[in-house]
């Protein structure tokens, strides 16, 4: 299955942007209100809300900075608890403060996405990508 994937370098840049997004007081407040803890000021890990293994893309609106403890919890939670946490993450990712940040960083984000899209187009032209995902073969 193909997923939206940035180059290693650009993914590092995107992760730095997500850290910057969570690092500011007005968004940290929203994060706290919705998720129940502050985003980690140092360390922590970037999580794909829709998991990479489920085709979740390297896009800013699918990424969130979590403490090690919370990240561990998401990946070991029961399905029900995971769904609850994911609903909170999505609600944070679509809150006004994050939307504002997103529009302020639109050009920067689109520049990163464009490279990945061009790569994909190139692969398609060279026939390196299946026309349909495997599960849609029949
Ligand atoms: Zn994760």
From TrEMBL:
InterPro entries on file: HNH_nuc
Protein name as catalogued: HNH endonuclease
Top-level taxon of the source organism: Bacteria
């Amino acid at each position: 299955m193909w997923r939206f994937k940035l180059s290693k370098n650009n993914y590092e840049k995107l992760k730095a942007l997500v850290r910057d997004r969570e690092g500011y007081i007005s968004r940290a407040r929203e994060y706290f209100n919705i998720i129940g803890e502050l985003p980690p000021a140092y360390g922590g890990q970037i999580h794909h809300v829709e998991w990479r293994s489920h085709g979740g893309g390297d896009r800013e609106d699918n990424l969130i900075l979590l403490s090690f403890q919370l990240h561990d919890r998401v990946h070991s939670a029961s399905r029900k608890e995971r769904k609850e946490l994911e609903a909170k993450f999505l609600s944070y990712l679509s809150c006004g403060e994050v939307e504002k940040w997103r529009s302020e960083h639109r050009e920067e984000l689109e520049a990163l996405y464009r490279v990945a899209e061009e790569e994909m187009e190139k692969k398609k032209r060279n026939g390196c990508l299946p026309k349909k995902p495997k599960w849609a073969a029949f």
